[in-house]
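Study the following:
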Amino acid sequence: MAFKTLKTKREAISLAALGEEIAARRVAVGPVNTPRNAGTRRSTAKQALLNQITKIGGDW
């Protein structure tokens, strides 16, 4: 236990329960479209890596 003196008012939640809660929230909210980085300041190495990922069908 990291904090031996920490006193919380809530019960601990399991990872399974947290996953179910997050899934329910995603269903309620629907798809969220977050803006992507324009990528105008990428190094040549980073751009080459992203090009290879795209070439094999990945979505970075």
About this structure: The first helix runs from residue 15 to 29. The chain is about 45% helix and 0% strand. Helices lie at 15-29, 44-55. The mean pLDDT is 89.
